[in-house]
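User: Can you help me understand a structure? I only have the sequence.
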Amino acid sequence: MKSEITIQEFKDVLNYIIDNNKKLTAKGKPKVVIEALGVHGLGKTESIIQVAEERNMRVVKINLAQIEELGDFVGIPVKEYKVIDDKGSEVWVDDKVLDAYLKAGYSLSSVTESRMSYAIPSWVPKDDEEIILLLDDFRRADYRYMQALMELISKGEYISWKLPENTHVVLSSNPDTGDYNVTSLDPAQRNRFISFTTKFDLNTWAKWAEEEKVESRVINFALFYPEIFDNPNDSGITPRSVVTFANTISGISNFSDSKNLSLINIIAEGCFESKENTIGTLFTMFVNNKMDRLITPDEMVKGDWKTVSKKMEDSIYDNDEFRADISSILTTRFLNYVDIYYDSKEITSKEVNSRIIELVEHKKQLLSMDLIFMLIKKLMGKHPMRSKDLLRNKTIVDAIQGV
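Assistant: Let's start by predicting it. Here is the structure, written out as tokens:
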């Protein structure tokens, strides 16, 4: 069975492929095309768009499952004529602009030559900026279109037109496992690109959700019940459907109110395909155990330390017994929040540095110190001047030297 890679690992591969494609182009070699293959709602398309945004590239996204006419994708057939300028240079022009060329001084060849060609489709990029051409739902395309795509994928061209040199083709697809209405590929098609089977990674999703400001209580819920993502084809529970659920219930302020909790259960039934309403049941337990009231990352960083430490202790300790599961959730939220917003206007480095020192020196363990020290080392590498206050703490210095 083919091994799977996480969405973050796919992003790393895509970044490498784009860089390497530039080197291949400089050597006159064809670019490599890659495919993100995986179950629905995994974040494949979003991850490709994220790479483009991080690299300041433009995305041209074509959903192949929605293409109804082949001409919409490969261009409309046109008749072309060969014309010659006064220096004897030849050029092919379509019949719609032939008169304009003749008036400009071009002439038809002595033996009028013509051919059938294809007009460049409107979606083809026309500038020199770096572009990702994302062929979304590639394996859901009509078989005729997939045949037409073979030349475009392997050579970046289709009969009479070419993609701009700075265009990188990336595919996303659902697998041919019997669960999806997709077209099977023959060996000749599969050999024209590299395919990577992607899988869900909770830590990558949690950081993305933090950055996208997904409903905070649902992020905690997903971190507390990671097993909900195990069988998406059976349960209908995917990262996408969880985000839809989060957005839908985000307008409810008090989850513990019985009327609101009943409404959340109804919403869960609509968002997920599970006959047992797994999410509704688990979320009710989550709320009944007051897990929806966990401190937010924003509070952990900006709140008054006396109040924050008391609230964290009340959550993490149950009759003096350390709750590693809750500590793990709060650690993940804190790390992601700081990593995302440390160099933004959301928080100041002074707030973060002071809070980290207070966490390290607190009489009771609250977060995973190993991960906190890894974060400190990362911050010092990325922002040495802004994080220098951390180096004044002996506990931190001794710890990071051992990390």
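Now, to help you interpret it: The radius of gyration is 28 Å. The CA atoms of residues 286 and 292 lie 7 Å apart. Let me know which part you'd like to focus on.
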